[in-house]
Amino acid sequence: MSLNVKKLKSENPEVTASLIEEVEIVLGVKLPESYISLMKKWNGGYFDQEYQVLLSNGKA
Predict the structure, then answer these.
(1) How far is CA 21 from its chain centroid?
(2) What is the pLDDT along the chain (60 residues), one digit of tens a residue?
(3) What domain range includes position 30?
(4) Is residue 31 part of a domain?
C-alpha cells in the first residue's frame, strides 16, 4: 500500500524551537532529532481521505 503524502494536510501552527524545548521540559526527555524533523515538516498532519488497513487473523 502506498500513501500519497502530497495529500497530507495540517491545520496546526508551525512548530517552533521554543515549543519543542517546552515539550521536552514538560516530558523530561530530549526528543530525537528525527522526531523533531518530522514534526517541523508535518506537525500532526492528516490525510484528506480515510485509510483502513485490514489484518487477517489467520482464520479467514
Answers:
(1) 18
(2) 555 556 666 677 788 999 999 999 999 999 999 999 988 887 766 666 666 677 777 765
(3) 15-45
(4) yes
Domain assignment of residue 8, yes or no = no
d(CA 49, CA 29): 34
53 and 1 Cβ atoms separated by less than 8 Å: yes
Q: Which helix (H) or strand (E) holds 21?
A: helix 17-27
User: Residue 6 carries which side chain, given as an amino acid letter?
Assistant: K
Terminal Cα-to-Cα distance of the chain (whole angstroms)? 21
Q: Which three cell numbers stand for residue 47?
A: 490525510
Q: Do 10 and 44 contact (CB within 8 A), yes or no?
A: yes
Residue located via cell numbers 514538560: 26
Residue 26 main-chain phi, psi, to 5 deg: -60, -45
